[in-house]
Structures are given as structure tokens and as C-alpha cells.
Amino acid sequence: MALNLPSSPSVGQRANVGTKTYQWSGSAWLVVANQINATTLTVGSGTNSISTTTGALVVTGGVGIGGDLYLGGTLYSNGVTVLTTATLNASIFGGNDINITTISTGSTTYLRFDNTSTLQTVTGRGNSTTNIVNITNTTESTSTTSGALIIAGGIGVGKRINCESLKIADSVFDSTLITINNTASTVIDSYLSTDFRSAKYFIQIGSGGGANNTGSTATFQGVEILLVADNNNAVYATEYGLVVTGGASAGGGLGTFSADLSAVDKYVRLYFAATTATNKTVKVLRTGMTA
Which of the 8 DSSP states describes residue 96? Predict the structure, then answer.
């Protein structure tokens, strides 16, 4: 009975007839199984493989291996030697930041892959990114050589910088915000006199007009204050540049300021006492000069 197999097959070519699969060996069509399930499978021929269609065992599709793979000869990929048992370490080469070593334990030899990358090697291959760089270390900076991020050279910043405070040489810039709805004398800022000898304030106050002082009846004030502390627990203050909307400046603005220096904790404190008990938002920018 004719099987209607291809008349001029190439070595390894397969053809299906009914439920059987045939493969051309070069001299005859051999029946092959689509899948073999066995605990142990031994192929007795000693024929070496020089291509994907030669050798004692030829697998046309992919191979899934659930356990270890032991190699007694040479491993090829597209005709190129990629691994030999005699020269394991010389046949597999590490790439950038990957170090490959041969480890021998008793009769077993295996390859160890170590990641040796550092920030220097990574940025050496490319030092720009469109991704956000997030440094989660929370170490505070007390000098140009301390903190979560230390940069020896200058910094070029194309847009706004947001920070809790900013130190430039012997000056520190700090900003705070406080809400007040009474006429009590309230601390709106404080600092250690041992850290700063003097401080210059720019203060903005919004009063009334509803939530967040957004209404048309809200009143606003801008004022500057200068403080200087001596070594005898005394602080000296001067207020200037007062500007108030709505003509409230005749009455001294939206409130009064005062300052003191505690002999106990050495803190200088700046106070604000509102004239009326309306909702007020007080924003404080301090420039402190080191002692």
C-alpha cells in the first residue's frame, strides 16, 4: 500500500500519515513517536551531532528539561561552540558587571555568576534617564559632605527646587505656615540662638474672607522683621516694610509681633498676636545667619 510520502525528502524531514509520523533518515522512512514518556530513555548509538538533524537523538521541536543537564561533549548553537566540558570557564564569557567563575565541589563542577555592578560602572554605560530617581535614604545634611545625596561638583537645575529648608554657606532659608483664629500671643517661628546669631523674616498674613482667606472681604498684610541675639539671653527686634490691604495699616496692621530668648533652652521665639479673632493664615520665610 502506498503511503504517499514525499518523493525527494531531506534528512530529518517528517511527514504524517494517518496517526503515525515518519522521518527520513537519509535512506529510509522511520516511524517516530510524537511524545515519549519514560522514566529512563537510552539511545544506544554513539553518533555525534553536528547539526539539528544529526546525532543519536534528533528532536525537531523544543526540549523541556525538569532536572539537571549533564554534558559530556560540546554544546553548539547555530554551528558555533558555546560550551565545552573541558573549558567551561573559557567558553562562557561574562558581560558588563557579570563575573563568571568555575566552582568545583568534590566531583561536581558548576558555573557561578556574580553581579559586580556599581554606580560607577552603570553610569559609565549611560548617565541619563527619563525616569524619576528616588533616593529613600533619610540621612540629614549638616555640611557639603553629609546627607542622603552628596555631590562634589555643581548642580544644574532646569526647574523649581522644593525642599524643607535650604542652606547656602552661612545662611539657612526656612519657611513655615500656621493658622490662627484667636487673639492670643502665638509662636509662629523659633530657632536655636546657638545656631543663628540673627534672622530676617518676610511674613505674609491673610485674614477673614472665609476658608483660606479666599473671599472678597479678606485682608492681607506683608511685613519684614529683623532679629539679633546677644550672649546675655537678649534678643533685639525691628519691624519695617509694613503693607496692609484695605487701609488697616493705620491701626498697626492685622496684629503685633514680639520676640524673646529663653535662657533655659536657648531658643529665640517670634510671636504674633492678632488684633481680631478671625481666621488667619500666617506664612513665614526666615533667613538665618549662623552664629
Answer: T
